[in-house]
Specification:
By secondary structure, this protein is mainly alpha-helical. The protein contains 8 helices and 2 strands; from the N terminus they run H-H-H-E-E-H-H-H-H-H. Strands 1-2 form a two-stranded antiparallel sheet. A hairpin with a 5-residue loop joins strand 1 and strand 2 (64-67). Helix 1 (6-19) packs across helix 2 (28-35), helix 1 packs across helix 3 and helix 1 (6-19) crosses helix 4 (76-84). The two termini are 29 Å apart. 20% of the residues are buried. The model has no long low-confidence stretch (mean pLDDT 87).
Length: 152
Amino acid sequence: MFRVSRLTDYATLVMTCIATHPGDVLSTAQIAEEAHLELPTVSKLLKSLGHAGLVDSFRGVNGGYRLARPAQEISLADIVEAIEGPLGMTECTLSEGQCEREAQCGVRGSWQRINHVLDNALRAMSLADMLHPAPTAVATVALTELKGRTAS
């Protein structure tokens, strides 16, 4: 089964929690409580999200976190990459020369097409979209992209 890690799923929860309070600075404890997650987990995620430039942190008594840019400008791909690293279904979809069988591989091109569809779907879904999800939005983008690729 292909799935994102639990931390990536939690990072999405943390980001949507922060996005529901645009412009506000939320403490780690507030975020943990609203997201129903453990404080150490939220702290770890916020550190990664901060390094990725997705949240800004503020020190002091009234310190905390807020989105570094509007929710509409943060894609789901941004969040996944902040936690997981570059998007890639297989090693060879990230870069060439990672597999000794690359020259003889008959499926590399197909995996690259699939990776491209997934990448586009995650980039098309913004954090703002996650706040008000349209159940078929990602599926529609992915299917349209896949149909366009198989027709050519």
